[in-house]
């Protein structure tokens, strides 16, 4: 029971990080208002959430260190672009809490 709660909390944290990164990217690149994603970014976030929720690995490694690449080729390229752009910019803005996720 406790392990499943911890797994769920980790999953929710990962989804919040995805939401933060994709939201920042969308505001910066697509000029979307805060709290609103364009269709492309909304689709990417929905896809990423689904993949995270369905991940069979426990403990889940970071995607770049995973031996199972569950993202499609186009989605993988897009999420890499989003993570690289947002990670660098958010850290420069003082979001050091995201440092661990960005590098590991």
Concise structural overview:
Pfam families: YgbA_NO. This is Nitrous oxide-stimulated promoter family protein. The protein is mainly alpha-helical.
Give a description of the structure.
With 104 residues, this protein is mainly α. The two termini are 27 Å apart. The model has no long low-confidence stretch (mean pLDDT 86). The chain has four helices and no strands. The chain has helices spanning 2-29, 39-53, 73-92, 99-103. It is globular, with a radius of gyration of 14 Å. It is 65% helix and 0% strand. The protein has one domain. InterPro entries: Uncharacterised_YgbA. This is Nitrous oxide-stimulated promoter family protein. It comes from Geomonas terrae.
Radius of gyration: 14 Å
Please indicate the percent range of residues in DSSP E strands (runs of 2 or more).
under 5%
- Helix count, DSSP H or I runs of 4 or more residues: 4
Q: How much is the average pLDDT? A: 86
Query: Given the helix and strand composition, which structural class is it?
Result: mainly alpha
The low-pLDDT segments are: none
As a percent range, the share of helical residues equals 55-70%
Largest sheet: none
What is the H/E order? Answer: HHHH
Q: Would you count the extended β strands for me?
A: 0
Q: Number of folding domains?
A: 1
Distance between the termini: 27 Å
Describe the global form: globular
Secondary-structure blueprint of this entry?
Blueprint (H helix, E strand, L loop, with lengths): L1 H28 L9 H15 L19 H20 L6 H5 L1
Helix pairs in contact: 1-2, 1-3
């Amino acid at each position: 029971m406790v392990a499943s709660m911890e797994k769920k909390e980790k999953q929710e944290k990962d989804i919040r990080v995805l939401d933060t990164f994709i939201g920042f990217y969308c505001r910066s690149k697509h000029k979307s208002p805060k709290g609103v994603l364009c269709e492309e970014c909304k689709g990417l976030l929905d896809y990423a959430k689904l993949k995270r929720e369905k991940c069979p690995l426990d403990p889940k490694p970071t995607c770049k260190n995973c031996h199972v690449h569950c993202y499609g080729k186009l989605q993988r390229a897009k999420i890499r672009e989003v993570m690289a752009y947002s990670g660098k910019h958010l850290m420069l803005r003082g979001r050091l809490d995201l440092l661990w996720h960005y590098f590991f």
